[in-house]
Amino acid sequence: MQEDIFNMSVRKFLKKVGITSQREIDTVIRAAIEDGRINSNANVDIQVTLKIAALSKPLVIMGEIHLDDLS
Fold first, then answer.
1. Per-residue pLDDT, 70
2. Please, which pLDDT band fits residue 56 given cuts at 50, 70 and 90?
3. Rounded distance between C-alpha atoms, residue 20 and residue 12, angstroms
4. What is the pTM of this model?
5. For the chain, what are the domain ranges?
């Protein structure tokens, strides 16, 4: 395995994940605030599941997003 190629490929994938995730999170959080499903200064639990096809066990990453009045 060539480390430089591997690292660049991983970084490219993570950039795509980051941009896509941020856009989707922003969209659904703002819609949920507008619909009244969540409060605009709530803390929202979030979970991401990373699954690598060649591996059997997914990695679950959990966290919290602090809204602090985004409306």
1. 53
2. confident
3. 12
4. 0.80
5. 3-66
- CA distances for 48 relative to 45, 59, 60, angstroms: 11, 8, 6
Tell me: pLDDT of 71 over 60: no
What secondary structure does DSSP assign to the chain, as a single string?
--HHHHHHHHHHHHHHHHHHHHHHHHHHHHHHHHHTSS-TT-EEEEEEEE--TTSSS-EEEEEEEE-SS--
Q: How many other CB atoms sit within 10 Å of the CB of residue 51?
A: 10
Mean pLDDT (the chain, rounded): 93
Largest CA distance in the chain: 50
User: Are 71 and 33 within 8 A, CB to CB?
Assistant: yes
- At which residue do the structure tokens 């919290």 appear? 64
Token pair in block for residue 7: 């690292």
